[in-house]
Automatic annotation (TrEMBL):
<protein>
    <submittedName>
        <fullName>ABC transporter ATP-binding protein</fullName>
    </submittedName>
</protein>
<dbReference type="InterPro" id="IPR003593">
    <property type="entry name" value="AAA+_ATPase"/>
</dbReference>
<dbReference type="InterPro" id="IPR003439">
    <property type="entry name" value="ABC_transporter-like_ATP-bd"/>
</dbReference>
<keyword id="KW-0813">Transport</keyword>
<dbReference type="GO" id="GO:0005524">
    <property type="term" value="F:ATP binding"/>
</dbReference>
<feature type="domain" description="ABC transporter">
    <location>
        <begin position="5"/>
        <end position="230"/>
    </location>
</feature>
<keyword id="KW-0067">ATP-binding</keyword>
<dbReference type="InterPro" id="IPR017871">
    <property type="entry name" value="ABC_transporter-like_CS"/>
</dbReference>
<dbReference type="InterPro" id="IPR051782">
    <property type="entry name" value="ABC_Transporter_VariousFunc"/>
</dbReference>
<dbReference type="InterPro" id="IPR027417">
    <property type="entry name" value="P-loop_NTPase"/>
</dbReference>
<dbReference type="Pfam" id="PF00005">
    <property type="entry name" value="ABC_tran"/>
</dbReference>
<keyword id="KW-0547">Nucleotide-binding</keyword>
Length: 288
């Protein structure tokens, strides 16, 4: 099984917003970063993956199965990590283990206690007294304790300090030593993905702009800087988007080879970060 998640022509309409004809695949054994601005449709897409929302059209499959006939089997194999508390606030971790554990065939108490200790989580302290980072870690402990094959993380680092975010990235790298595990990581903080992501899916205003290996993004996308005199109707075809300034231009390209062929050494070519790509593709829905 190559794809753990498959969305085919998925559409979900709301008043004033929609996710449109989304085709998204999440490959087994890799970390896929799901990026986009707040309100782009990341959480809506994840809710459809989790069967918390049903699409108006299209097909959602996880592990090759659909929720209509295999909901329990699917949910046995996925874990969800949110950016806050998803448990009853008066409970402690031991309470949660006693309630959640029996719901899963593959729950493992040994793994639960191992990760609770590794993450420094008190077992008898009410969840409501956990910091935001500790609440996120608690969700991750639960996901790992039932041996989830797919871990879906919805903005887990939002509001966390940079040190804690870096510690989380190190932890996820360790988890991916198990090559059967897959992580789908939604975030608008693109720097969190620089060290761990294998693939990047970018959503903009409900439309999937691209879903590519991060190596291909690095190879193809770049920022190009040069003098305004270099721009005309033909040379602009090498760019996805151009920003003009009084002293020159800065542009995003997804074809470095075409830029070099067109401009030679008369421009400066720099690596484009994911944040650069998000910024310059803003509003360019035609470029998918």
């Amino acid at each position: 099984m190559e794809n753990v998640v498959e969305l085919k022509n998925v559409t979900k309409n709301f008043k004033g917003f929609s996710v449109n004809n989304m085709d998204l695949q999440v490959k087994q054994g890799f970390v896929t970063g799901f990026i986009g601005a707040n309100g782009a449709g990341k959480s809506t897409t994840i809710k459809m993956m989790m069967n918390l929302l049903r699409p108006d059209a299209g097909e959602v499959k996880l592990f090759g199965m659909d929720y209509k006939t295999h909901e329990k089997a699917i949910k046995e194999r996925i874990g969800f990590v949110y950016d806050g508390n998803v448990f009853f606030e008066g409970m402690n971790l031991k309470d949660i283990k006693h309630i959640v554990g029996p719901a899963y065939k593959h729950w493992d108490d040994t793994i639960f206690y191992q990760y609770a200790e590794q993450f420094g989580l008190p077992l008898n302290k009410a969840i409501k007294n956990f910091s935001k980072g500790m609440q996120m870690k608690a969700s991750l402990v639960i996901a790992l304790s039932h041996n989830a094959e797919l871990i879906i993380m919805d903005e887990p680092t939002s509001g966390l300090d940079p040190i804690f975010r870096r510690e989380l990235m190190d932890l996820l790298q360790e988890l991916m030593m198990d090559e059967s595990r897959t992580i789908f990581f939604s975030t608008h903080i693109t720097t969190d993905l620089d060290r761990i992501a294998d693939h990047i899916a970018f959503i903009q205003s409900g439309e999937l702009m691209f879903n590519q290996p991060i190596d291909e993004i690095d190879e193809n996308y770049a920022l190009v800087k040069g003098g305004k005199e270099l721009l005309d109707r033909d040379t602009e075809q090498a760019f996805v988007h151009v920003h003009r300034a009084p002293t020159g231009f800065e542009a995003l390209t997804d074809n470095i080879g075409a830029v070099k062929k067109t401009f030679g050494d008369s421009v400066v070519i720099e690596r484009a970060t994911l944040e650069d790509i998000m910024y310059y593709l803003k509003g360019d829905k035609h470029h998918v």
